[in-house]
């Protein structure tokens, strides 16, 4: 008979693609993880992994077992919630992956409010300039700027957000006039490192009609700080402007960008009432916070004119 604990170890190796990394996640040594995988393979009379210099990849049999193991994981988690009296409550640990702009300027306030209302909940925000792999359980859910088109995922649009060209007032006072997009050629531009743009929705420099990026970073937050330091002109999230005193939108009637945040969850997680309730609270909070911060950004620009 299959043992849930063996399936738990199977899932950890499938996600980590390494005995040692799976062992660290499970708080077991790699040798023990290897023995448990061997025991499971013997019980099933099937080879579940193919070992290579790159690590442990699922075999054909492992691919067939994976959705059943994930379903067992969900059922076990649901049983724990029900029997502990936590069903429908926001408790335990949840990890959200998000692009660094959202993670730095929006999620802290949103998650603080959710935590205040749910003292038994531990929220972890992982800010990385890349796409998260939910199949490997790098996060319980992720916020992205593009809607994924592949994978066993559930996708929900959270909200639109806006970006504008922006600069610090001191920079504008000492620099060449900036009255149209053609004037950008006389200014130092701040933007992404071209070969490190991980999502096509972030590739918006061509719309500026500027010649080249003079200062670049793979982080939207670093770019905002560059703009705030008076280093040049960059495309800044409107929701970041309230955190950058002195920064105002420029050429806003000539150029404005609209993007969207999407909430991505593993398809099997739709059966978890706990995760669904958290996703609803997260979505509502994020919509309200983006709208609040964008109103402040608009008022700040008007005040600076």
How would you describe this structure to a colleague?
By secondary structure, the protein is α/β, with parallel strands linked by helices. 41% of the residues lie in helices and 22% in strands. It has helices at residues 4-16, 19-26, 30-44, 60-83, 100-105, 107-117, 169-174, 220-228, 273-304; strands at residues 49-52, 55-58, 92-98, 121-127, 141-144, 153-168, 189-191, 213-216, 233-237, 247-249, 257-266. Strands 3, 4, 5, 6, 7, 8, 9, 10 and 11 form a nine-stranded mixed β-sheet that branches. A hairpin with a 2-residue loop joins strand 1 and strand 2 (55-58). Helix 6 (107-117) crosses helix 9 (273-304). The protein starts with a helix and ends with a helix. The mean pLDDT is 87.
What key phrases describe this protein's structure?
305 residues; alpha/beta; nine-stranded mixed beta sheet; two-stranded antiparallel ribbon; 41% helix
């Amino acid at each position: 008979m299959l043992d849930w604990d063996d399936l738990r170890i199977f899932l950890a190796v499938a996600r980590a693609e390494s005995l040692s990394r799976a062992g660290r996640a499970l708080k077991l040594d790699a040798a023990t993880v290897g023995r448990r995988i061997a025991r499971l393979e013997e019980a099933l009379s099937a080879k579940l992994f193919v070992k290579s210099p790159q690590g442990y990849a699922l075999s054909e049999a492992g691919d067939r077992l994976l959705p059943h193991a994930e379903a067992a994981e969900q059922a076990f988690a649901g049983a724990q919630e029900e029997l502990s009296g936590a069903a429908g409550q926001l408790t335990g640990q949840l990890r959200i992956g998000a692009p660094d702009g959202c993670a730095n300027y929006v999620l802290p306030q949103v998650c603080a409010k959710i935590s205040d209302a749910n003292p038994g909940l531990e929220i972890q925000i992982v800010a990385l300039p890349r796409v998260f792999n939910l199949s490997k359980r790098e996060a319980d859910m992720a916020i992205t700027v593009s809607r994924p088109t592949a994978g066993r995922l559930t996708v929900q649009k959270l909200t639109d957000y806006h970006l504008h060209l922006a600069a610090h007032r001191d920079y504008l006072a000492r620099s060449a006039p900036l009255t149209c997009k053609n004037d950008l050629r006389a200014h130092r531009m701040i933007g992404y490192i071209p070969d490190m743009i991980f999502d096509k929705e972030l590739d918006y420099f061509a719309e500026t009609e500027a010649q080249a990026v003079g200062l670049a970073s793979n982080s939207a937050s670093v770019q905002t700080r560059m703009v705030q330091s008076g280093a040049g002109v960059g495309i800044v999230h409107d929701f970041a402007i309230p955190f950058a005193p002195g920064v105002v939108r420029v050429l806003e009637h000539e150029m404005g960008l609209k993007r969207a945040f999407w909430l991505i969850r593993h398809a099997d997680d739709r059966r978890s009432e706990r995760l669904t309730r958290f996703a609803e609270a997260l979505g509502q909070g994020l919509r309200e916070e983006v709208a609040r911060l964008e109103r402040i950004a608009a008022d700040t620009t008007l005040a600076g004119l």
